[in-house]
Design a protein that fits this description.
By secondary structure, this protein is α/β, with parallel strands linked by helices. The protein is built from 13 helices and twelve strands. It has three domains: 78 residues, Winged helix-like DNA-binding domain superfamily/Winged helix DNA-binding domain (Arc Repressor Mutant, subunit A); 101 residues, Periplasmic binding protein-like II (D-Maltodextrin-Binding Protein, domain 2, 3-Layer(aba) Sandwich), CATH 3.40.190; 100 residues, D-Maltodextrin-Binding Protein, domain 2, CATH 3.40.190.10. Helix content is 42%, strand content 21%. Strands 4-3-5-12-6 form a five-stranded mixed β-sheet, covered by helices on one side. It has a three-stranded antiparallel β-sheet with strand order 10-7-11. A two-stranded antiparallel ribbon has the order 1-2. Helix 2 packs across helix 4, helix 3 packs across helix 4 and helix 6 crosses helix 13. The longest helix is centred in the first third of the chain and has 25 residues. The protein starts with a helix and ends in a 9-residue tail after the last helix.
């Protein structure tokens, strides 16, 4: 088939199906994300396979993976979709009251418990027709790649040294403390730096491939290492684990405070000095001038600025 003939048969909807199927690696999940019936997505994928003369998505074990040709199409298709969205959205500005934009935000569940609920409420109150998708950060998810491909609009998290290849905005900071069970010996007698390091610690899973975490990165710079004996992928489960063990959780005070009174746990100061945890929002240069992107980032900034700032002095 001649190139111009293929071009005449491919519309923006097909490009959207292509990108969604390849990134979701599932026809059924793509159908849910697109708001389409699965047979319609399958029919579109069949057309795309004919145009590409390649299966694009093939079975691997119990799942599906893109072919090499499919992998090469992910970024170009994302670029086309971003360009189409910006072509019209930015031309007329972003009218929150009537916009039907889909915002995708990547964030960890250790954020201040008031932050994400307030952010969703802020977005929905000003842009009631917009969709919001909050996705987790994990060791299997490369947030830089997702930002570059347009799979997420903003990443919210904390870094000792944020990546310098992305745009960033400082949101808030927090004191680093330790959370222990009420029956932990350190509650009664306190602890030295050596005792804190040798105690059994529980730590969250990675937020991106290769991540060490701000606590362990800082300790490494000091030439120290704590005794991590448990790792938990779901951060929200850790306080209950701490309450029934002698494990120590070290993180921001705001996160720990939500569990004091609800669980038999106590907040203790760390005998090792830590800088305050600083939280950022990160975004890619591709969306830096997007009207919708600017609107979303301003909502995030406003909500962060409205959080109580009396988190202790460290």
């Amino acid at each position: 088939m001649r190139e111009h003939a293929i071009f005449d048969k491919i519309d923006l909807h097909l490009i959207r199906v292509l990108h969604t199927v390849l990134t979701e690696r599932s026809v059924s999940r793509a159908a849910v994300r697109l708001g389409m019936h699965q047979p319609a997505v399958s029919a579109s994928l069949k057309r795309l396979r004919e145009f590409a003369q390649d299966p694009l998505l093939v079975r691997a074990g119990s799942g599906m993976v893109p072919t090499e040709a499919g992998m090469r199409m992910i970024e170009p298709s994302a670029s086309i979709l971003r360009g189409a969205q910006m072509l019209f959205a930015d031309a007329r500005g972003f009218d929150a009251a009537s916009a039907t934009h889909s915002f995708r935000i990547a964030a960890s569940d250790y954020l201040d418990s008031r932050f994400l609920p307030r952010l969703v409420a802020q977005i929905k109150s000003h842009a009631p027709l917009c969709h919001i998708d909050i996705v987790p950060l994990s060791g299997e998810s490369d947030y830089r790649l997702h930002l570059a491909q347009g799979d997420v609009d903003v990443v919210i998290g904390n870094w000792n040294t944020p990546p310098d290849d992305l745009h960033l905005g400082v949101l808030f900071d927090d004191e680093v403390v330790s959370l222990v069970a009420d029956h932990h010996p350190a509650v009664r007698r306190g602890w030295s730096a050596e005792e804190w390091l040798s105690a059994e610690h529980v730590a969250p899973g990675q937020t991106h491939p290769g991540a060490r975490g701000v606590i362990d990165e800082h300790l490494e710079r000091l030439g120290l290492q704590r005794n991590i004996t448990a790792r938990v992928a779901h951060f929200s489960l850790i306080p209950a684990i701490v309450a029934s063990t002698l494990l120590v959780l070290t993180t921001g005070r705001a996160y720990c405070e939500r569990f004091v009174g609800r669980l038999p746990v106590t907040i203790l100061s760390c005998p090792v000095s830590f800088p305050r945890m600083r939280y950022y929002q990160l975004w890619h240069a591709r969306s830096n001038t997007s009207a919708a992107g600017r609107w979303l980032r301003e909502r995030i900034r406003v909500v962060a600025a409205d959080l109580p700032q009396d988190r202790g002095s460290g």
